[in-house]
Amino acid sequence: xxxxxxxxxxxxxxxxxxxxxxxxxxxxxxxxxxxxxxxxxxxxxxxxxxxxxxxxxxxxxxxxxxxxxxxxxxxxxxxxxxxxxxxxxxxxxxxxxxxxxxxxxxxxxxxxxxxxxxxxxxxxxxxxxxxxxxxxxxxxxxxxxxxxxxxxxxxxxxxxxxxxxxxxxxxxxxxxxxxxxxxxxxxxxxxxxxxxxxxxxxxxxxxxxxxxxxxxxxxxxxxxxxxxxxxxxxxxxxxxxxxxxxxxxxxxxxxxxxxxxxxxxxxxxxxxxxxxxxxxxxxxxxxxxxxxxxxxxxxxxxxxxx
Length: 306
Fold this sequence. Notes:
This protein has a domain at 96-256: MetI-like fold (Orthogonal Bundle), CATH 1.10.3720.10. The protein has twelve helices and no strands. It has helices spanning 2-29, 43-52, 59-71, 86-121, 126-140, 143-157, 170-198, 202-209, 214-243, 246-251, 257-266, 270-298. The mean pLDDT is 85.
């Protein structure tokens, strides 16, 4: 397993290189520049600024210089936050995004699996219909609408929770509910479908034939095999929760990496866009690797690397 993990990590280097290359050139194809403003600078000042940041050189030269410095851990200084290295901005904002993403993932798993089990065990009953209605709503409703409803109900009407900012545990509740609602729905539907498929298996009928209770059959036998598809989807969901929290961080004014990324794109902050994209790529690769390792541990029939 250790050798397999090393191979995957070394194999991820070309992927990160392709990601960095595409991002570097695509962000420069976007209209506008990092120092455009309503009142244009005099030509000599603009030329001096571009020379200072190396933007007067050909794009391929800029890319080569960035690649060389990035290999040594230098992601350059941000254009938006003057005087601040990109690594410092990432270090300050990444913990908030990781906290939000991991809390949302725990919320989705801890409620999604039981909800899927309940729906499968109570198939074609009120509980099944209600659980799947909530799941479909969680998948269908856009994030901004879920956030608006939660703020309206719990902040403006009931006044139980703060509508925004990042000031304590209570500030985490609404963003987690918003960000975790969609993965919760996906996990619940997948758990239900996997369990219903397992109920038709021979080993489940054998377990019932031995006189085991329905609860033991479901949670000791059926769920053990049905959880494999759920594990396989947790990796992409985890990466998406960390990297796809842009809107949630903007709506709830969370000082996370996603919020900085949105501002960096809008302001054409090339170094910050590159740094955040690289971090997101690493998170996605590590999440998929972790899932593959857990997948092999959960199902001994799977041999990693084959």
